[in-house]
């Protein structure tokens, strides 16, 4: 199928192959964007795994280490 632009993949729906946009992450206004997508896949993570990943110094960003981002992440995960 050849090389794809970053964040895009070819998917097959029946006899149709379409180029799809893959989005990973979240935003405070995501509810306002739902009508732009035809399918969602919700991935969940348990708190201990999430905190282990946040604390990994090799991951390349400061999310979870600055301001209230760590506390907000814990609240957003909720109970297991």
Would you write up a description of this structure?
A hairpin with a 2-residue loop joins strand 1 (8-13) and strand 2 (16-21). Helix 1 (47-54) runs antiparallel to helix 2 (69-77). This protein has one domain (8-77). It is elongated. It contains 2 helices and 2 strands. The model has no long low-confidence stretch (mean pLDDT 75). It has helices at 47-54, 69-77; strands at 8-13, 16-21. Strands 1-2 form a two-stranded antiparallel ribbon. It is an alpha+beta fold and 80 residues long. The termini are far apart. Helix content is 21%, strand content 15%.
Q: What is the arithmetic mean of pLDDT?
A: 75
Decide which structural class fits the backbone. alpha+beta
Overall outline: elongated
- Give the H and E element order: EEHH
Q: What percent strand?
A: 15-25%
Spatial separation of the terminal alpha carbons:
40 Å
Whole-number count of domains: 1
Residues in helices, as a percent range: 10-25%
Order the strands across the largest sheet as they lie in space: 1-2
Total helices: the number is 2
